[in-house]
Design goal:
Largest sheet: 5 strands, mixed
Number of helices: 5
Oligomer: single chain
Number of strands: 5
Order of helices and strands: EHHEEEEHHH
Helix content: 25-40%
Strand content: 25-35%
């Protein structure tokens, strides 16, 4: 399994968009420019979000965890986007509902089992309201990177 790529260049703060499509396109394009995903990842992530909503109405701040199929991924990574203002995402498991998302964890995994492991780990992280508050309020990409690495034990994925 290739090592997970995670650094400050894929942590995007103060994103100012009004739709989930705009945010996902910005975050996906950043990963394409870094050579981490194929160009097809952009369209794949948008299409999958329409089919399978990824918004989670968690305590404090809602989160979204968009992801798509492994064939669009060159190197596994997690991109984090923090929005200035909430953007509506469909609720996972009930896309007739929406939730105002402020934090996005865009997953690009190159193996199905690593994606499932990461999703399970992230779900535990999202249960902590203080963690989500920290992510929204912190303005240092380096601090966010270190915090997430510690919380998720990224070197073990």
């Amino acid at each position: 399994m290739k090592e997970l790529f995670f650094d400050e260049s894929i942590i995007l703060l103060d994103l100012d968009y009004s739709t989930k499509q705009e945010v996902l396109k910005k975050m996906s394009t950043n990963l394409v420019e870094k050579g981490l995903v194929k160009y097809s990842f952009i369209e794949a992530i948008l299409e999958r979000e329409e089919e399978f909503a990824t918004g989670l109405p968690t305590e404090g701040y809602s989160v979204a965890i968009p992801h798509t199929d492994i064939e669009h991924v060159i190197h596994k990574t997690i991109s984090i986007g923090i929005l200035k203002e909430p953007v509506d995402f469909g609720v996972m498991g009930d896309d007739s509902e929406t939730t105002p998302v402020r934090i996005i964890f865009l997953l690009a995994m190159n193996e199905s089992h690593s994606q499932l492991t990461l999703l399970q780990t992230l779900m535990q992280l999202f249960q902590n309201e203080e963690t989500l508050k920290y992510l929204v309020e912190e303005n240092s990409k380096e601090n966010i990177k270190n915090f997430i690495e510690e919380k998720l034990k990224l070197t073990q994925l």
